[in-house]
Design brief:
- This protein has 70 residues and is mostly helical.
- The protein has a domain at 27-56.
- The chain has three helices and no strands.
- The protein has helices at residues 6-20, 25-44, 49-58.
- The N and C termini lie far apart (70 Å).
Length: 70
């Protein structure tokens, strides 16, 4: 199996930049990181509650606004 060096990683990153664009790359990296964390947690048997609390904290809260018809 060939070794993956810095040039190969650079080529992959450039292709990803061209395919996904600069605006989507941070979102893509964040979702990949989250997937890796969940995978490691499932392998080590960590509590699933931590992941649920993290999801609740990440969700934006909606603030009730008064009705304009009142």
């Amino acid at each position: 199996m060939p070794n993956i060096g810095p040039m190969e990683i650079l080529v992959v990153l450039i292709i990803a930049l061209v395919v996904f664009g600069p605006k989507r790359l941070p979102e893509l990296g964040q979702s990949v990181g989250k997937g890796i964390r969940e995978f490691r947690g499932s392998l080590s048997g960590d509590n699933k509650d931590d992941v649920q609390e993290e999801n609740v904290a990440a969700e934006p809260r909606r603030i009730a606004q008064p009705s304009e018809h009142a």
